[in-house]
Glycosyltransferase (Streptomyces galbus), 298 residues
Amino acid sequence: MTDPRLTVVVITHNRRPELLRTLDRLADLPERPPVIVTDNGSTDGTAEAVARRHPRVTLLRPGRNLGAVGRNLAVRQVRTPYVVFCDDDTWWDPGSPAGAADLLDRHPALACVTARIVVEPGGTEDPIVEELRTSPLTRPSWMPGPALGSFLAGASVLRTDAFRAAGGFHPRLWLGGEEELLAADLAASGWWLTYAEHLTVHHQASTVRDPTLRRAHGIRNTLWFTWLRRPVRPALRRTLFLARTVPRDTVSLRAFAEAAAALPWVLRERRVLPVEVEERFRLLEDVQRRSTARQYTG
């Protein structure tokens, strides 16, 4: 039987083999969730292949690459209380989506549950997991796991209404660390995010990617989030830290230039986080400085 609490959302762009593998895995889940795929302007026959092999999948074709906003487009179609985000190169363990839904059922102040990530084909744990597991944030007594400051979109289940109320993913950020701004806005609205050790997502990174572009977007989006939501002194401190630590190359220079060129709209949209939420990000900064999983070196 289909779990009436869950809908899976996937975005893709020119990754037909990886997407079909993911959809095969999702079709085998005992939860039998409906699946919505946003095909971000693929030119490799993705849409046709999905229609043939998985005719029950709802396929959205915006006609261009919307990046993370493709998820927003899909969530508009969701009619279940929870949305399971899945990338085209990730897939959920059987029972894990339902396990996340159980946590959201039991804890009404929880907006997001992030699963443990296992890297395939080797079956090793993603380095980011240890940071999730050992998050330094103080958590409420009711919370079932560590409190998080952000989440990973390919490995998380979110409360649909909370996602919509927070505005979804910001259209300017496209892809690359786009979760941090949404997570901060959820926290500013009183929501909590957690990590669940007993839930698992598998990630077999696609070889069809541009790591240089992803790094540039990651640096740029980190700067934009910092300038949009952090108080002046912490924002300056984090900006200087990035300037000192990112690779000194044309990719980083381009990322800083793109970020600086957007200052007019950044200042127009700037909204500093509440003090208690800003304190969480301050606590996370030491972890991020030491992080090998978050370094912009790819």
Notes: The mean pLDDT is 95. The chain has two domains: 6-203, 211-290. The CA atoms of residues 152 and 284 lie 16 Å apart.
